[in-house]
Structures
1.
Amino acid sequence: MTFSERLEELEKAVIDRLELSSTLGELEELKAEYLSRKGKFSLLLRELKELPAEEKPKAGESANSLKKKLDELLQSRLLAFKEKGQKTPEEFFDFTLPGHRSWEGKHHPLTQVLDRIIEIFYGMGFEVAQGPDIETNYYNFDSLNFPQDHPARDMQDTFYLANDLILRTHTSPVQVRVFEKKNPPVKILAPGRVYRHEAINARSYCLFYQVEGFYVDEGVTFADLKGVLVAFVKEFFGKEVELRFRASFFPFTEPSAEVDIRCIICKGKGCSVCKYRGWLEILGAGMIDPEVFKAVGYDPEKYTGYAFGLGVDRIAMLKYRIDDIRLFYENDLRFLRQF
Ligand code: DAH
């Protein structure tokens, strides 16, 4: 193709595109592609110097006049569009305006931990049940075999409301409420809030969360209890975490135990979190006392069962390495946004 044929071809291409363009944006694109400094027209001009000397002046002249013609066409089209009120993409979109930040909604860290705990036990066949936060002395203490003079009943520990009502100090009363309604087998997980009239500091707050778990059937043993708790701890904290069962006492279980895990911060060497003991207590547990069964009409000769109570806040503090329980209840967004 000769140089002048190529000029003609380019002219036709530009005019076709001009006809097809219906927005300022399209015209800007056309200009950039064909008529800018690095556009197709400029590329074609570079070939001028390869032409024989005698052809150069004429070819140069027609190239120049074509450029002029196309620039004018484009300009008048641009003007016409602008008069109709069209805006270029740059005019239309203000790149200097600040962007909109969108915040993602999330669950509270305690809810996240609670959900995970429930999920793990659900996988082991536990159903979820709930009891009221406002309890009677009977469900919170008497039915669970607490003696009349037990120190937990003291005004210093328990929030007393009117008419024998209290704020529950633990989730264990849900055991009795479920036993009254259902016969064995029962395999229940009961998460909820509990309240204690204690001095508030980094380690204790006037309310916190527990998850109660219990299983009653014929032939349930302490080995079954150990099995579920070991499975839970390994699933929640990781396979390498060690745990130990320590003999303990609760009025509603016999035998009773407290379960510690090897400190996940110092791995047992001793640090301020585990108070240089190397172990951290995460739950109380045991075999349900026959006295509790008698109160609800279960035959203690026929059925046995285990129960455990996990401290959710404690577990959340260990998981996220939080050293002050009050942070969970202040709802400071600078804290909550980190989860
Ligand atoms: N209710 C006890 C507490 O709040 C925790 C507990 C201990 C629950 C032993 C249990 C259990 O189910 O078997 O301190």
2.
Amino acid sequence: MHISVVLFTADLRLHDHPPLRAALDAADAVVPLFVLDPAIEESGFAAPNRRAFLHDCLADLDASLRERGGRLVVRRGATVDQVCRVVTEADACEVHVSAGHSAFAMHREERLRTALERSGRRLFVHEAVTVAVPPGTITPAACDHFTVFTPYHRHWEGTPLRAVVAAPGRVRVPDEVGGEEIPPLTGTGVSPALPPGGEGSARAQAAAYWRDGLDAYDDTRDDLGADATSRFSAPLHFGTLSPVELVQRARRHGGAGARSFVRQLAWRDFHRQVLAARPSSAHTELRTRHDHWRTERDARADIDAWREGRTGYPVVDAAMRQLREEGWMHNRARLLTASFLTKTLYIDWRVGAAHFLHWLVDGDLANNQLNWQWMAGTGTDTRPHRVLNPVTQGKKYDPSGVYVHRWVPELRGVAAPRVHEPWRLPGLDRAVLAYPEPVVDLAEGLERFRRARGKRP
Ligand code: FAD
């Protein structure tokens, strides 16, 4: 009997899964495998919110495989060792996996290939599973990746996508291969309003968004109070939704909303091709501006105020509180809180990126680190010294104060636009608010940043 192994990683779905399709086509039976690798836990990347979401994704994947006559085999240990063990136990001929784009994933892939080839087995790495257009597919003439989004996007739009693959009808798993229980949900440190994970809920969410959300996307995507973006980021990070399928579906739908939404998916691929070409950009600056950032050592109180949502700037505090409560934050809010930390408070972007990675259920090395670098002006932004003013941003993107009122109950009695500048309220009103004074004067923060970057205030 010919047996294949499918190693699931950041692609926890059955629909549009080319590695599973290829494994089924090649074999009489397959082992759908997921490995809980202590190296990921030890790296700190398995934060409580993502661990909880992962639990749901694995349970859902197992249930979907069981409906088709199979099951998910879960193993714990170093990925390469565990895959080789399963291959030996099942006497499998080949392993299928989706291409990953972080240093960890690329290194794992190489070691797996070497280990399998040593025993005469083959590794098949499938591109375009966790991205729509794989890194390296489109490159500028003189470089191995694009460093500016606009020309990348032009090429990305013109790149043909592979066809969407149907979910399998039946999956036969050999009886002799056993696994562990899916790890139980502990709940400690998990955001109270974390959404459920799993392909089933992600596909239901997508169906609702095509029906009710997509057409208005372009008009509402920056409206903090409307909260009208897709919230597909966690399903995309865990692969319960396929980027290829989303792009195809949105293009079929058509219209300005769909075009704008597809553009955001191009940003996702853009950051991945930067990370794949420059793996160190997860931690080191792509383009140093010779900053002497403030860090935990010299800015502890400011950092704590930012993390805890008590900076005295309502829209910043609303966003930071949403992050803890939901494990998610609106894109406009991510931009303005990142600008506030790096430019107004002049604190190292890595401090902010680490805090986001701890809480974000969609916390993703490429998207998080490279968006932080973009906002800090050390990455791919063509206007690296831009500073977002939290008052102006609040008035523009939360004009009626709905977002601030939702997350900062102390300010519910203050109407917009004054809610974005509570320090302008008369002394008596301010005294009853129990809301902090600003941690920094915006003009002073701006001057410090401009001095540091060698720009005249
Ligand atoms: P939508 O607006 O509905 O967009 C659809 C999809 O497009 C998103 O799900 C996402 O996959 C992609 N997308 C949208 N905006 C961007 C962007 N700027 N860059 C890359 N892809 C994008 N996104 C993450 O998935 N994980 C992160 O860890 C992450 N950290 C970020 C940190 C900072 C400082 C900033 C400014 C942005 C970060 N983003 C991150 C990008 C973006 O904010 C989120 O993807 C988006 O807010 C998720 O909400 P949504 O799914 O409703 O997005």
